Amino acid sequence: MSGEGALSVFARAKELEGQGRSIIHLELGEPDFHPGKSVIEAAAKALADGKDRYCAVAGVPALREEIAAYLARTRNINVSAGNIVLAPGCKIALFLAMMALLEPGDEVLYPDPGFPGYPSIALGLGAVPVPFKLSAGNHFQPDAAEVRSKITSRTRMLLTNSPGNPTGTVYTDAVQRALAELAVKHDLWVLSDEIYARIIYGGEYLSMLRYPGMKERTLIIDGFSKSFAMTGWRLGYTVAPPEVMAALNLMVVNTYTCTAEFTQYAAIEALRDREGNTPRMVAEFARRREQFARDLNQVPGFHIQLPEGAFYAWVDITGTGMSAEELCRILLEEAGVAAIPGAAFGPAGKDFIRFSFASSTATLKEAVERIQKVSSAWQATAVR
To answer: Contact 164/194 with Cβ under 8 angstroms?
Structure first.
């Protein structure tokens, strides 16, 4: 298995801070918002009411019901509460879903660039990760023809991620429909990572579960970290077909037993969102996206396509004449701006760097000013 580039950069950035350096953290995918007042109050009430005990393996029934209602309301998909399993974060949900479905030697199709956990977990389970490329020329949309060409008799699973990390791409209806048809034709499991589903900047979100033949073969991974600014609460969930549920429950019993009870009661309030926290946060991200993309495109050698979802700026740095690794070193060590070299998300990302714009507009402005000041290191060779 492999590590995660964002956490490595974060560790070095914290080391520099410990030396008294001023660091702007744009490496982690963490909203600078916090849960609404009703969510905090619900957590406090749950603790006061003694909800700090072992609870149902798959999750508190009331929360599972609320998730089903939430998905119907926000994604127009109908799932049963009995087909939902809570987890202490999306990573463990992703891990156990893959463990339930993969055997050694099975091939897993996944996006490159993409979340580094996809190939890492597959390798850890003895499976074979097979990348399909997301290219700037195709607006970082999966190419169904390429995916088709990589399907073999050993292909077991197709991983999708829309909106995508690190590109911010929202898969089109045509692309998802084509991927769904391939999954049905070749009898593949589809693992749809929908953690950024609420953070889109126009149009209706289309879950992979909405396409013909997908309900019986699709598992959705989602959670509360991104859309509800609850990163440290460690709360995610899997929506799975009935035939997979027994395996998932068995693995919960053998790993984390259950998810913390009081956080689940707080999550019910988060899903109801009586204060409108999520729409307000997404509207602010939309403003930051416009400003940050405009400002970054003014940096010599930088080029960015406006992301359609999530909160990442995926910057093409080929015009600087520098490697992404060297550029990120200069940004961190000399400018005090933490970003991630694109190769951390796969070989196809080698000419890119990723910034998170989940920080205030003032912070993002200052970050670009710092970048401009050190850009003399590559301005002589920069191509606009």
So the answer is: no
pLDDT digits (tens, 9 = 90+) for 17-61: 899 999 999 998 889 999 999 999 999 999 999 999 999 999 999
**Radius of gyration over every alpha carbon of the chain, rounded to an integer in angstroms:** 21
What is the pLDDT confidence band of residue 376, given thresholds at 50, 70 and 90?
very high
User: What's the rounded Cα separation, in Å, for the pair 68 and 71?
Assistant: 5
Which residues fall within 8 angstroms of residue 289, CB to CB, at 6 or more apart?
201, 306, 307, 311, 313, 357
To the question of pTM greater than 0.70 for the whole model, the response is yes
Query: Who contacts 193 (Cβ-Cβ below 8 Å, separation ≥6)?
Result: 90, 94, 115, 159, 160, 161, 221
One DSSP character per residue, 169-229 reads PPPPHHHHHHHHHHHHHTT-EEEEE-TTTT-BSSS----GGGSTT-TTTEEEEEESTTTTS
Per-residue three-class SS string for 318-355: HHHCCCHHHHHHHHHHHHCEECEEHHHHCHHHCCEEEE
Structure tokens at 133: 């490329």
Give the pLDDT confidence score for residue 380 in this predicted structure: 66
Please give the average per-residue pLDDT across 346-357, as a whole number: 97
